[in-house]
Amino acid sequence: MKLLRSFILVTLFFTLIFISSCVYFRGASECDSIQEQESKDTCNKNLGVQTQNIVICDKIKSENIKYECYSHVAEVMQDINICDKIQNQEIKDECYAEVGEETQDQSICGKILSSEDKDHCYLGVGIDKQSIEICNKIQSQLIKDECYKVVKA
């Protein structure tokens, strides 16, 4: 009985791997067949996010669409190293903020250069952790007050 159960689990595992790779290859070939570059880039972005595969994001020609792909994959995978691939500072800051809030890691918020994005990151983490100390890191008094109000509630 144990052997049969193990066999079924292994078979199920390999079936899922096979199906996932079929989706990836079918999707990749569909994107590659698109002639118009922006549509091809958007297709690859959607596929990269869906499969959580930055190699697909790397294929994108438009820098902004590529960086959006990196940002979405970084958020889902909770990996700030992917954010570091982004050269556009505004999108990089947004990526750090999304990953920081998702992981509830205030140290990631500290990497953000934009004070507005940094404050929103601290707001999200402060509220999630119910931490006045994190709220104190917020520069904007309006956002800081909102953080205090929610954390103290």
Describe the structure.
With 153 residues, this protein is mainly alpha-helical. Helix content is 78%, strand content 0%. The protein is built from ten helices and no strands. It has helices at residues 2-32, 37-51, 54-58, 63-77, 80-83, 89-103, 106-109, 115-129, 132-135, 141-152. Helix 1 runs antiparallel to helix 2 (37-51), helix 2 packs parallel to helix 4 and helix 6 runs parallel beside helix 8 (115-129). It is elongated and about 55 Å long. Residues 12-26 have low confidence and may be disordered.
Blueprint (SSEs and pairs):
Blueprint: H1 2-32, H2 37-51, H3 54-58, H4 63-77, H5 80-83, H6 89-103, H7 106-109, H8 115-129, H9 132-135, H10 141-152
Features:
mainly alpha; 0% strand; single chain; 10 helices; 153 residues
Report on the biggest sheet: none
Low-confidence stretches: 12-26
Choose one word for the global shape: elongated
Per DSSP E runs of 2 or more residues, the count of β-strands stands at 0
**Terminal Cα separation, in Å?**
54 Å
Percent strand equals under 5%
